[in-house]
Structure formats: structure tokens, C-alpha cells
């Protein structure tokens, strides 16, 4: 179970944000094409940053608290999932604030 | 390059994307700065667990050593770059007509009742 520590934190983030979809109807998941087109480049940029940081020794991951699935360069699957989950949560939060405040964001 | 320098470059890159490349200008908008405090609270919480429980371990030589809720202060810059790049792309795609609707809040009985 300890191997799931990192993924549990990500699951917690999702739980904290996903309710906005049905309750406030932020319609982020319904606009899934736009969501995919946003998340893919973000994952690419931040995976490259992460690989450089791992190579430079900026940070390491506890093998006992991560899934153990590693991509080339020593990048854990858990960390890649971070770059998928955090953007989804950020967009859910952003669209919720928009729905409540009704302030322009530039795509109206 | 230290994590400190990389994080500063990351913020600079994200701000350039927002202001110059995609011209979404989110850093000039109320809606962005209203969202950010909420993001920070959840970041400090989740990042605090990741660093406090030593799931992610930092090389002391790569960071300033200033920590907020266990996490190196550089993580706040990293998170800012991640969230700003994400939201800039999201808004840019909407402006280009990709899934502009249904808009946020459309069809929410709760929001209708609150108004």
C-alpha cells in the first residue's frame, strides 16, 4: 500500500476538484477535446523539465512510496500523472471561479 | 543550473507565453488572481505531503533552503509556471474556437438559485 502514497495524493487532489463538474457544471470534462489539447503540451514541457532536473540531481523519488513504474531517464509514472492531474484540477478551479464571479478570461 | 534558477526561468517562460506568445494576458486578469489563492492552498497541502513525507526528496545544494509547509520555496514558482501555462493554453484554445461551449456554469441549478 505504501507504494501508492504518491498516487494517493493525486487522487486527493482530483477528489477535491472533480465535484465542481457536476455541482457547478463547470463543463470542463464535457469540453474534453480542449482539455486534452491543453494537457498534452503541458505534460511534454514539464516531463522535459523533470528529466533535466532528475539528470541534474535536483530531486529524487522514494522508491518505497511510488509505483515503481519508471520511464527512461528515471521518471516515475507517478510524476507524469502529477502533470496530468494538476492541470485538470487547475482548470476545474479556474472555470469554477469564472462561473461564480462572471469575470472575463479572454475567450468569450 | 540550480532548481532555484530553473524555477525562475520557468516562471519567466510561462509569463512570456501568456503575454507575448499566446497573448492571453491572464496575469493581468482578476479571474486569474482570484483563482490563484485557491490553487496555492491546495498546492501547499498536497506538496506538503509529498515533501513532508519524503516522497520527493530535494538536493539541498540545488535549492535556497527556504521552505514553506515542508516544500522548498522553489516549488511555488514551479507550480505557478505549471498552472499559468495550463490556463493560458486552455484560454487560447477557447479563443480559437475549440470547445468554447458549454460555458462554465451553464446548466447549473445551484448557480441559478444563488443568483
Topology overview:
The complex is a heterodimer of chains A (108) and B (115).
Chain A: H1 5-18, H2 20-23, H3 32-56, E1 59-61, E2 70-71, E3 75-76, H4 77-101
Antiparallel strand pairs in A: 2-3
Chain B: H1 3-21, H2 30-52, E1 56-58, E2 67-68, E3 71-72, H3 74-95, H4 109-114
Antiparallel strand pairs in B: 2-3
Helix pairs in contact in B: 1-3
Taken as a percent bin, the fraction of beta residues of chain B is 5-15%
The major β-sheet of chain B equals:
2 strands, antiparallel
Low-confidence stretches of chain A: none
* Cross-sheet strand order for the largest sheet of chain B: 2-3
Q: In one word, what is the shape of chain B?
A: globular
Helix count of chain A? 4
Give the ordered list of helices and strands of chain B. Answer: HHEEEHH
**What's the count of strands of chain A?**
3
* Largest interface: pair, residues per side: A-B, 59 and 55 residues
Keywords, please?
heterodimer; A: 108 residues; mainly alpha; two-stranded antiparallel ribbon; 3 strands; 6% strand; globular; B: 115 residues; two-stranded antiparallel sheet; 4 helices
Amino acid at each position: 500500500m505504501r507504494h501508492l502514497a504518491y498516487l494517493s495524493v493525486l487522487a486527493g487532489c482530483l477528489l477535491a476538484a472533480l465535484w465542481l463538474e457536476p455541482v457547478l457544471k463547470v463543463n470542463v470534462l464535457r469540453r474534453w477535446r480542449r482539455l486534452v489539447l491543453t494537457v498534452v503540451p503541458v505534460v511534454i514541457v514539464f516531463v522535459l523539465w523533470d528529466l533535466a532536473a532528475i539528470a541534474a540531481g535536483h530531486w529524487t523519488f522514494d522508491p518505497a512510496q511510488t509505483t515503481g513504474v519508471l520511464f527512461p531517464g528515471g521518471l516515475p509514472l507517478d510524476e507524469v500523472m502529477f502533470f496530468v492531474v494538476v492541470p485538470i484540477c487547475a482548470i476545474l478551479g479556474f472555470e469554477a471561479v469564472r462561473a461564480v464571479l462572471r469575470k472575463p478570461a479572454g475567450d468569450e | 543550473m540550480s532548481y532555484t534558477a530553473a524555477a525562475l526561468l520557468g516562471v519567466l517562460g510561462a509569463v512570456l507565453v501568456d503575454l507575448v506568445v499566446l497573448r492571453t494576458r491572464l496575469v493581468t486578469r482578476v479571474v486569474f488572481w482570484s483563482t490563484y489563492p485557491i490553487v496555492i492552498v491546495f498546492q501547499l497541502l498536497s506538496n506538503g505531503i509529498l515533501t513532508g513525507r519524503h516522497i520527493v526528496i530535494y538536493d539541498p545544494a540545488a535549492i535556497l533552503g527556504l521552505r514553506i509547509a515542508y516544500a522548498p520555496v522553489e516549488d511555488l514558482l514551479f507550480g505557478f509556471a505549471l498552472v499559468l501555462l495550463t490556463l493560458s493554453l486552455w484560454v487560447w484554445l477557447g479563443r480559437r474556437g475549440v470547445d468554447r461551449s458549454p460555458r462554465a456554469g451553464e446548466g447549473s441549478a445551484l448557480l441559478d438559485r444563488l443568483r
